[in-house]
Design brief:
By secondary structure, the chain is of the alpha/beta class. It contains 7 helices and 11 strands. The relative contact order is 0.15.
Length: 250
């Protein structure tokens, strides 16, 4: 896993995902954090879309991420006394001196683990950092077969003003590798700063999963108790489900 988001991605991250992600999962994860009795760890904390609000509500929450540029934007939001809560680490091999009652990996973090060996290492590493009875919650999407097979071709998923007089647009293309269950994604960012125009591309692979594969994966790990829901309101999996929400309990 080596997904160090470039600086321009981090720069526009909050703007984009406030529009396209908040309202999808934030109520679910913030509710889980609020109900946790002890310390919480967010894996893939990024710019702090969830962590900063959880801290404001009084949660004893910590965060790790592998992208220095994302953490730079998060640290700019934090009070000096909270800087110690953040570290540059990977879910596969992170080491922290404390154990947690809840560990979360929101918004597809687990899909950045493209090899089964690192997926298992991640699950077992998380298990080792949980208190007895603690939970690990993460989400991946249910593959929609037609767009998965056909891919996306220059689809604009965000366009808007990021500061007065300046606009940015993000364009997404995908190229699926069905044998290896990889979606090769290209993000193109276009923005202006006054009269200057910029365009940058970033490519990243993401691993997609199917239901029984996820079950077998968790059952191979140290976890022996888990549940898979089909949405962020807790409904069971069904033919209309678009999310796999896994809750693994130590």
């Amino acid at each position: 896993m080596n997904e160090e988001y470039p600086g321009y991605f981090a720069r526009f991250y909050d703007l984009i995902y406030h529009q396209i992600r908040d309202g999808v999962d934030d109520t679910f994860y913030l509710g889980k954090i609020k109900n946790a009795k002890g310390k919480v760890l967010e894996v893939g904390t990024g710019t702090g879309r969830l962590l900063s609000r959880a801290l404001e509500s009084g949660a004893d929450i910590y965060g790790i991420d592998i992208s220095p540029s994302m953490l730079d934007f998060l640290k700019a939001k934090l009070a000096p006394e909270d800087m110690k809560r953040i570290s540059l680490q990977n879910i596969v091999d992170f080491r922290l001196d404390t154990k947690f009652d809840l560990i979360i990996a929101p918004f597809r973090v687990f899909m950045h683990l493209t090899e089964k060996e690192e997926q298992l290492k991640a699950l077992n590493n998380v298990y080792d950092h949980l208190n007895n009875g603690g939970q690990f919650i993460f989400d991946v999407f249910v593959p929609a077969l037609r767009p998965l097979i056909e891919g996306l071709d220059n689809v604009t998923d965000f366009e808007g003003e990021y500061e007065p007089g300046n606009r940015m647009k993000r364009i997404v293309s995908t190229n699926p590798d069905l044998i290896n269950q990889i979606i090769n994604i290209t993000f193109r960012f276009e923005w202006n700063e006054g009269s200057l125009n910029y365009s940058r591309e970033w490519k990243t692979p993401m691993r997609f999963f199917f239901r029984f594969e996820l079950e077998h994966l968790v059952e191979r790990s140290k976890f022996n108790k888990y549940n898979i829901a089909g949405d962020f309101t807790g409904n069971a999996l069904n033919s209309d489900s678009k999310e796999f929400i896994l809750t693994c309990t130590k």
